[in-house]
């Protein structure tokens, strides 16, 4: 009998867990979760885990049966592996909730080929990760084990799941591609999407360079089919390349709001769309320049420009032209075909679709490029909207090879658990250890099936360290989400994460005597990146946050000045270091709240396939924290935007910011609703997106809507590249 076919009639842990949802004497029965955890370990894990006489016997079995990477294990003295395990055992790790243990054993623990037995526990998975990412460095392996067993560091799902396994998928989380306006590029892009989807990561693809439907091709009028047929081809590609049936391939296509196909692009996600154009599984995203917001505020007509004509006039693909700067000249240029649309009509169409489906994601592309410290232009993003890196276009010949090799994007993700990270004895050492682990994924990735991605990875060594558990930290320390103390903490935490990742990347550059490509043209090299930290000595402002950071060294302006000199002298190894990805199932394993978001419910309800409903109490939920846990659906989304905007100042890439809305909004939540309907309208989303833009938010990832019948619309479980 497979582990997922255990006779539920003889098990007690599901019933015990479900009692969490049944108040007793008006109180949540938190204790039932601990009882469910104990029962799960007793009834499920212990009788179904392979036992071995000793550690040597265990590793002999794992290597003989092809479960672990023997070459990885053989990098180490076995005496060291025994030392590592003793260190991990001494850490005395215990799951804190039923959901944490259940999710780990259901999704992450190695099982026998027939799925009848567990082959590893949490300590074993941590050990495999430590050994793998340390690549033979014993001290680094111990340091990584220390970070992971204390759950200060969590590698992204692809990395944590696959590290050390003999039969493993890719460790990379996500990819970003672009197509240029010719059939060779489109064909190569589709092939690349197939290859990357097979490897396991979510794929973002920008189609803005493609000429619009009805455009001329070689003088033949109305010959171009536009972006929608290419979207359909890509969707079919992702469906086909589904990681051997284990998981649906996943992709997002991005389009500029100034592309003439914009309305048809949005129409592909409408529920009543014709099947010939409707895309069901492909995600949609928009790149939005400043000019669009200006035209919306003016209630002006906006011009949409033919990408082919723009490229012919400017000598570079449409994506790389600064539309905000060139808009008036493009509008006045008779050589550029254009169509007209009322800006607010498009704005309302975006909000209508977000209400209906949660899409499109919105990338404020000029905001991104103003903050981008690396030479070049950011033109697109990934499946979860937090990866924002420079790309360069390719030129592909009729043989589908490269006349000019461009750079595309892969990214390796990991996350700090904020609650546990604040307990680290050495913040700097913890961050350096994490950055080394992430850099190893970049260094060891073989992505030559898509040469542009391989080239981009080798040039930039880009990674994305993020964070989860912010709402849990606030509640545990009795701060209200979005209040003055919460913003103060957020500012200092992410400033420190920025400082210490920079310091670690500088150390890597010095050790390896190499920097990322074109470092000398970056804002790091000319020193301008550091000016805000030199002008303002950023320190905790409130007494509570001062006490919280008292045991850590908070870098001051003098520290930043020294770091600036060191980086200008020796450079940086990683072009990009930070990104806030969404956190999926792994946040449960960490007994953490997801990403930087507020909670959904004090006791969250999850539907688990054939198992039924499982309940998860918010971390540290007890009488003295209850009042500090407010549902995201009952919260003014401007508070969430404020928290993200505070963190964004220190993050070189982006953040997967989700908006949580009720179809009927709580009374008094938004002042502009006074005297109007309390139903959520497109106007509400328009105002919130405009607020996010003015707060310098780089991207709005998703809109989740809680309906009047207690259901959730447009809930995107981004498993492809979430942490």
TrEMBL record:
Organism whose genome encodes this protein: Weissella kandleri
Indicate the segments forming the Ribonucleotide reductase large subunit domain, all copies.
560-582
Which reaction equations make up its catalytic activity?
a 2'-deoxyribonucleoside 5'-diphosphate + [thioredoxin]-disulfide + H2O = a ribonucleoside 5'-diphosphate + [thioredoxin]-dithiol
Protein EC: 1.17.4.1
Q: Which residues form a coiled coil?
A: none
Family of the protein in this entry: Belongs to the ribonucleoside diphosphate reductase large chain family.
Instruction: Share an example GO biological-process annotation for this protein.
Output: deoxyribonucleotide biosynthetic process
Q: Give the record's GO CC terms.
A: ribonucleoside-diphosphate reductase complex
UniProt xrefs under PROSITE patterns = RIBORED_LARGE
> Which SUPFAM superfamilies is this protein grouped with?
PFL-like glycyl radical enzymes, R1 subunit of ribonucleotide reductase, N-terminal domain
Q: What does this protein do?
A: Provides the precursors necessary for DNA synthesis. Catalyzes the biosynthesis of deoxyribonucleotides from the corresponding ribonucleotides.
Lineage, top ranks:
Bacteria, Bacillati, Bacillota, Bacilli, Lactobacillales
Which protein is depicted?
A: Ribonucleoside-diphosphate reductase
């Amino acid at each position: 009998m497979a582990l997922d076919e255990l006779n539920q009639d003889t098990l007690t842990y599901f019933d015990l867990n479900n009692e969490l949802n049944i108040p007793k004497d008006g109180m949540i029965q938190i204790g039932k979760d601990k009882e469910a955890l104990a029962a799960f370990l007793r009834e499920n894990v212990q009788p179904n885990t392979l036992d071995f006489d000793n550690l040597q016997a265990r590793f002999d079995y794992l290597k003989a049966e092809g479960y672990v990477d023997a070459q990885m294990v053989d990098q180490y003295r076995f005496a060291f592996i025994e030392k590592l395990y003793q260190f991990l055992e001494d850490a005395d790790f215990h799951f804190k909730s039923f959901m944490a243990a259940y999710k780990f054993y259901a999704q992450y623990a190695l099982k026998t080929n027939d799925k009848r037995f567990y082959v590893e526990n949490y300590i074993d998975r941590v050990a495999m990760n430590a050994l793998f990412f340390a690549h033979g460095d014993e001290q680094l392996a111990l340091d990584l084990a220390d970070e992971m067993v204390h759950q200060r560091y969590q590698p992204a799902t692809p990395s944590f799941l696959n590290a050390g396994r003999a039969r493993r998928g890719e460790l990379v989380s996500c990819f970003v591609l672009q197509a240029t306006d010719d059939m060779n590029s489109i064909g190569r892009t589709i092939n690349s999407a197939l290859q990357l989807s097979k490897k396991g990561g979510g794929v973002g693809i920008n189609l803005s360079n493609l000429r619009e439907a009805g455009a001329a091709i070689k003088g033949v009028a109305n010959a171009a089919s536009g972006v929608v047929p290419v979207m359909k081809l890509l969707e079919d590609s992702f469906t086909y390349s589904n990681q051997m049936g284990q998981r649906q391939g996943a992709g997002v296509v991005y389009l500029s709001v100034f592309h003439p196909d914009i309305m048809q692009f949005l129409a592909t996600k409408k529920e009543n769309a014709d099947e010939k154009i409707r895309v069901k599984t492909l995600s949609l995203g928009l790149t939005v320049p400043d000019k669009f917001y200006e035209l919306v505020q003016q209630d002006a007509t906006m011009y949409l420009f033919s990408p082919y004509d723009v490229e012919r006039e400017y000598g570079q693909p449409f994506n790389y032209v600064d539309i905000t700067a060139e808009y008036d000249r493009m509008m006045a240029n008779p050589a550029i075909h254009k169509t007209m649309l009322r800006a607010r009509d498009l704005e309302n169409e975006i909000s209508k679709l977000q209400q209906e489906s949660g899409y499109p994601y919105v990338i404020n592309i000029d905001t991104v490029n103003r903050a981008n410290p690396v030479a070049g232009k950011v033109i697109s993003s990934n499946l979860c909207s937090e990866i924002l890196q420079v790309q360069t276009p390719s030129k592909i010949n009729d043989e589908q090879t490269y006349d000019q090799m461009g750079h595309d994007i892969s990214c390796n993700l990991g996350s700090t658990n904020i609650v546990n990270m604040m307990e680290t004895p050495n913040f700097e050492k913890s961050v350096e250890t994490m950055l080394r682990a992430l850099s190893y994924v970049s260094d060891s990735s073989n992505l030559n099936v898509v040469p542009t991605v391989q080239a981009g990875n080798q040039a930039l060594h880009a990674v994305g360290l993020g964070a989860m558990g912010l709402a849990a930290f606030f509640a545990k320390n009795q701060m209200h989400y979005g209040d003055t103390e919460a913003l103060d903490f957020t500012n200092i935490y992410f400033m420190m994460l920025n400082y210490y990742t920079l310091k670690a990347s500088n150390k890597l550059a010095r050790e390896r005597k190499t920097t990322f490509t074109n470092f000398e043209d970056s804002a790091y090299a000319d020193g301008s990146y550091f000016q805000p930290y030199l002008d303002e000595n950023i320190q905790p402002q409130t007494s509570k946050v001062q006490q919280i950071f008292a045991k850590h060294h908070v870098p001051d302006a003098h520290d930043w000045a020294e770091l600036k000199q060191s980086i200008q002298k020796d450079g940086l190894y990683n072009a990009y270091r930070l990104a806030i990805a969404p956190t999926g199932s792994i946040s449960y394993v960490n007994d953490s709240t997801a990403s930087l978001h507020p909670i959904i419910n004090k006791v969250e309800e999850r539907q688990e396939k054939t198992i039924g409903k499982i309940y998860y109490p918010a971390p540290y939920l007890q009488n003295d924290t209850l009042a500090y846990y407010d549902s995201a659906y009952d919260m003014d989304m401007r508070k969430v935007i404020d928290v993200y905007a505070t963190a964004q100042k220190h993050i070189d890439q982006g953040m997967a910011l989700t908006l949580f809305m009720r179809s009927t909004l709580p009374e008094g939540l938004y002042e502009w609703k006074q005297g109007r309907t309390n139903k959520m309208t497109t106007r509400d989303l328009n105002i919130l997106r405009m607020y996010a833009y003015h707060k310098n938010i780089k991207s709005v990832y998703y809109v989740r809507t809680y309906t009047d019948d207690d259901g959730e619309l447009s809930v995107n479980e981004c498993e492809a590249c979430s942490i």
